[in-house]
Structure formats: C-alpha cells, structure tokens
Amino acid sequence: MKKVTEASQAVAEAVKLCRPGCIPVYPITPQTHIPERISDFVDDGEMTCEMIYVESEHSALSAAIGSSAAGVRTYTATASQGLALMHEILHVVSGMRLPVVMNVANRALSAPINIWNDHQDSMNARDTSWVQLYVESAQEALDTTIQAFRIAEDKDVLLPVMVCLDGFTLSHVYEPVDVPDQKDVDKFLPAFKPLVSLDGKPVTMGPIGYPDQFMGFKMQQEDGMLASLDVIKKANSEFAKVFKRSYGDGLIEPYLLDDADYVFVGLGTVCGTARVVIDKLRKEGIKAGMCKLRTFRPFPTEEIVAACSKAKALLVFDKSFSYGFKGPVFAEFQSAFYDQPAKPVMHSFIAGLGGYDIRLDHIESAFRKAASSDKPLYEWLYDE
Predict the structure, then answer these.
(1) Residue 272, burial from CB neighbour count under 10 angstroms (0-12, 13-18, 19+)
(2) CA 322, 324, 325, 326 torsion: positive or negative?
(3) Res 33: pLDDT
(4) Residues facing 78 on adjacent strands
(5) Which CATH number goes with the domain that contains 158?
(6) Which pLDDT tens digit goes with each residue over 219-237?
(7) Measured between alpha carbons, how far is residue 113 from residues 28, 162, 282, 349 in Å?
(8) Are 170 and 283 part of one and the same domain?
(9) What is the mean pLDDT of residues 172-181?
C-alpha cells in the first residue's frame, strides 16, 4: 500500500509487520514518534504485543534482554543521550547474543544541549558488537528495519542490529512510502525461533567468563559479526525478490561509481544532497560519483576497496568526530586502503554536527577542491 507518511511512522509500520512480542521503550526526541505510533497500534488492537513503558533507556534495554532471552522477538528505539545511557547494556545484549533490533534517530550529544542531527551517538557505540545500518529515506528506513530482524536472528549471526536514521532530517520528514503486505513480510521474515531461551527448561545465560573462557566468547562474537556481511547481502537480495527493492549489495550503494575519479563517501540523508551535486558535475565533464555506506558495522572493507580503488580521490564526509583524530568513517577508509598498492587520495570533511546544514555548495566546493589538490584535505565545513 502506497502512502505519504513520516519516516518515524514508516518505521512503526515496519515494526508492526515484523510481529514483535515485546517492546520496552522510553521516549526521547527525535525518536518519540516511533514508539508513539507503535503504542497506537497496540492500543487499537492492530498489534499483539507487550509494550513496556519504563522510566529510562537503561531500563528499556535491560527489559529487552529479559524478553529476548525468554525467546520473544524484541524491539526498541532511542536517540542521543538515551543511547549513551544504554551504553553499559549495549555490550550485555551483544555479549549474550540476543537478536534485539533497535532504531536510533540520530541526534547530537550534549553539551551544549542540542536536539538536532549528527551521528555522534551511534558512532560512540560502534565498538559494542551491534550491527549498524544507516538509511537515507523513509522507504529505506522501513525496508531496513524489516531486514534487520532477518539479519539479527540468523543463526550464523545472533547479534543485535541498530538501524540508524537521521533525526528530524529524516525522522520527521514526510515522503511517499510503499508499505508491504503482511503476507509478504511473513514470507520474508518467518516466526522467531530462538536457539536458546529461558522457558520451561532451566539454562544459564550471561554467566561469568573466566580468563580461560572470556576470549573464546569474544572470538565467537567476532565470527558472528563477520558472518553478518554475507547475511546482510543475502537479506538485501532476497528482499528484492519479494518486494522489488534493494539498496546496492546491502553493504554499500554506488552511484555513478564505475568510472568516477572523485568519490563522495557518506551515510544517511546527506547522500541525497550529494546526488544532486554529482549530477551537476557530471554535466560539466567532472567524473564525480558516490559510495554510499549503508553498513558501517561490520565494516565492508573488501567491497569498498573493490568499488573505490580506481578513483583518484575520496571525499569522506563525517557527521561525527573522533576527538584528536578526524572522523570515524575517514579512519575506517584509511585503514581499508592501508595495505593496497594503489590508493586514492583521501580527504576528510567534518560536516553537519548538531544539525548544521550541509548545503549543495558545501559538497560542490569539496569536490572542486579535491579535483585540484594532490594532497589530503582536512576541513570542517562550518561558516563561522
């Protein structure tokens, strides 16, 4: 069914279609419209689900541990300071191999107090062993949320998945969306069958890990994270068979990349702005292209190197910052190309922090500077 709807409500539609059994949640701007709409579905009898209204995000994710461990498909959502408050529990969810799915409406972290979009909140959680997927549109937010359950619950993965959408810039924007039929989603996403659960048969979950065991647990987590690379690809391709939509190979989504000399790299809604600039530059004869990074964790090194190695330069746009060393996406790209015989020149641009507008002229200027510089650039795109 096609409709014009807010991206947050599109996510709520996706959650309903996935039939979760438990949703512990605490509201925080700009995530609020997601649980608000889900609670309407539950109250109106459109969802058979236990909605738990807790007193904090820490409690929300703690309750999610209990429900997922009991063998119930579990979902939650948060943003910014809420994700920061969850940080302790993020490690517990992944360490217990619980396939919880969570939407993050990306928002800046205080201080100063700021409710607008950047990626600092989820980037701070990049080493918590959660799969991280970033979306550009309301349709992609809906589709990726459905795929996330399929990825998380795969027996080769069994890790939680974070689906990140830009706060306000996407979460509160209305766009045309095709909402799938329930029968098609049921075909793509079968009922959750936990590998181990706290039901009638006693079992210990989340035990102490002694030094001779702890590393073994962590190695298994890494195996699951690396296995998710193929599972994400498979989920993307099988989703395309059922719903006739896909997003690159599920890991990266190229745009005019095959012959590009200068490649924009970004996550989320900024990629839509970049497409407009790329089209303009192409008309001028400048071979611009884009590598949209859809999957940040696990980092798709092989796919990125294969897609971008022929470029003269990469323009990496980070909407977050690793204090003391540029942006986290830039750092990952540097690492990916470290041992490659031929490397593009890599330019680091810090942009859009705290909702600061990334304009067409910012991106166009970055392309033109990259085209005229053989040395790496490092700039903050901020008009003081």
Answers:
(1) middle
(2) positive
(3) 99
(4) 104
(5) 3.40.50.970
(6) 999 999 999 999 999 999 9
(7) 14, 24, 40, 23
(8) no
(9) 98
Distance of CA 245 to the CA centre of its chain: 18
Q: What's the average model confidence in pLDDT over 1-5? A: 96
User: 232 and 347: one domain?
Assistant: no
Query: Which residue in 204, 333, 346 sits closest to 262, CA to CA?
Result: 346
Residue 165: strand pairing partners: 105
**Nearest alpha-carbon partner for 159 in 111, 107, 94:** 94
Read off the pLDDT band of 199 (50, 70, 90).
Answer: confident
Query: What six digits make up the tokens of 92?
Result: 């517990």
CB 163 within 8 A of CB 103: yes
What is the domain range of residue 367? 252-380
Backbone angles phi, psi at 90, to 5 degrees: -55, -45
One-letter identity of residue 175: E
How do 161-166 and 174-178 pair as beta strands? unpaired
Integer CA distances (angstroms), 301 to 131, 251, 257, 304, 369, in order: 15, 10, 16, 5, 26
207 and 300 belong to one structural domain = no
For residues 169 and 35, is the Cβ–Cβ distance under 8 A?
A: no
| Residue whose entry in the numeric block shows the structure tokens 């980092």 | 299
- Identify whether the C-beta of residue 232 lies closer than 8 Å to the C-beta of residue 152: no
Specify the residue for token string 């969306």: 177
Structure tokens at 297: 């964790």
36 vs 24: CA distance, rounded Å:
12
